[in-house]
Amino acid sequence: MSIAELFTTFPYIRTERLFLRQIVSEDAEDLYRYYTNPLVTKHLDWLGPSSIEDSMALINGWHQAFHARKLLPWGISYGPTAQSEILGTIMIMPTRGNFEDTPLFPLSVGYELKAEHWNKGIMSEALQAVLDFTRTHVGARRIQAEVYPENAASLRLLKKLGFQEEGLLRQYMMHEVTKKLLDVIMLALLC
Fold first, then answer.
1. Which end of the chain has fewer CB atoms surrounding its CB within 10 Å, N or C?
2. Per-residue pLDDT for 43 more than 90?
3. 11-35, pLDDT tens digit by residue?
4. d(CA 113, CA 184)
5. pLDDT classification of 154: cutoffs 50, 70, 90
6. Is 33 exposed, middle or buried (0-12, 13-18, 19+ CB in 10 A)?
7. Mean per-residue pLDDT for 139-164?
8. pLDDT of residue 81
9. CB 82: neighbour CB atoms within 10 A?
10. How far is CA 155 from the centre of its chain?
11. Where are the domains of the chain?
12. pTM over 0.85, yes/no
């Protein structure tokens, strides 16, 4: 499958328990609700959408970025329809440019999961499926993640899936709301 074919229709992924699907407008309320949990946003560089309307705008932005071939945004659910609750999201994107650039720039991965679904192996299963998909269909040579040093669960997950810690990037990003400069640990998986 070429990159052009990959972006003609949204690429769904099935795992043993999960269905990774396109996030649609019917998911706006669910997304808004789970981003309001401070446990979910604690390790993000923003606080999530501030309303259901902002969730709709966020979803529309993800759709535009997908069509521009700059983002692959999956919603994690137990079923393939919009009636299936979104448990979380996983997104991969080139660090620069889009998926058609050759050679492909390194990809960044980001994810979050509703707190009530933590410690059930859901994110491990979903992220492994996305990594497998990316190796097979995108041809990435490097996938990286930026994690706050205090986010021990995310660091464990990435290392379990083969990511290696490359170092601490001091004052690497700024929180969108607090404007505080944040340190992150860079982890990478070479494909």
1. N
2. no
3. 999 999 999 999 999 999 999 998 9
4. 19
5. very high
6. middle
7. 95
8. 65
9. 17
10. 15
11. 3-190
12. yes
Residue 176 has which token pair? Answer: 């969108």
| Structural tokens at position 74 | 């999956």
Superfamily grouping for domain 3-190 = Gcn5-related N-acetyltransferase (GNAT) (3.40.630.30)
Whose CA is closest to 1, among 130, 138, 140, 191?
A: 138
